[in-house]
Amino acid sequence: SQQGEEDPQALSIQEGENATMNCSYKTSINNLQWYRQNSGRGLVHLILIRSNEREKHSGRLRVTLDTSKKSSSLLITASRAADTASYFCSNAGGTSYGKLTFGQGTILTVHP
Amino acid sequence: NAGVTQTPKFQVLKTGQSMTLQCAQDMNHEYMSWYRQDPGMGLRLIHYSVGAGITDQGEVPNGYNVSRSTTEDFPLRLLSAAPSQTSVYFCASSRRESTDTQYFGPGTRLTVL
Hints:
Chain A is mostly beta strands. Chain A has strands spanning 4-7, 10-14, 19-25, 31-37, 43-50, 55-58, 61-66, 71-76, 85-91, 101-102, 106-111. In chain A, strands 2, 4, 5, 9, 10 and 11 form a six-stranded mixed beta sheet that branches. Chain A has a five-stranded antiparallel beta sheet with strand order 1-3-8-7-6, with no helix packed on it. Chain A is globular, with a radius of gyration of 13 Å. By secondary structure, chain B is mainly β. In chain B, 0% of the residues lie in helices and 50% in strands. In chain B, the strands form two sheets. In chain B, strands 2, 4, 5, 6, 9, 10 and 11 form a seven-stranded mixed beta sheet that branches. In chain B, strand 5 and strand 6 (54-57) form a beta hairpin. Chain B is globular. The relative contact order of chain B is 0.33. The interface between A and B is medium-sized, with 26 and 26 residues.
């Protein structure tokens, strides 16, 4: 079963624009993470937000979490061509530490 | 640190053949796991290990075996390859204190004919 579902499935923007991706999940969580996957590569951890946090920043990344709606969003500001990748949200559920589940991901294309 | 390494990068098998996908990490991480990624889908957990000598099943364990004799290595064995096992396989590791922040290897692309 897929715990996280990302939306939209694909996003195409111009360099300099902001990109927003959303994630919905089904069960309770301890924390939620966002990962990036460049084409043909493994996943890279971007940011983790805990269930008691509502917003977190890391450089050009801003993540929000709404546990009442079971949803999260990832905002990439001032996007660059190098941000072109697939983005996945992931979490282990309330009692399944380390057993991550992933959605299908959002494919982000940033045009120079 | 090399991080998480996987070999081979590519492999083609015939139905019924067996093989072992290798995974090693040099970060002294206790937790290691194997995922498969199919087109248009997220990663699905196959097996995981919380330490040497301890393994457990994930979401899609059928057709795969694992063992963890050392902290560094976590090989994945395909017992009798089937076309349904055509996929990209990723190994990941993490510290016990933060198992949700996992470090991924570059992947092995496996095709079963």
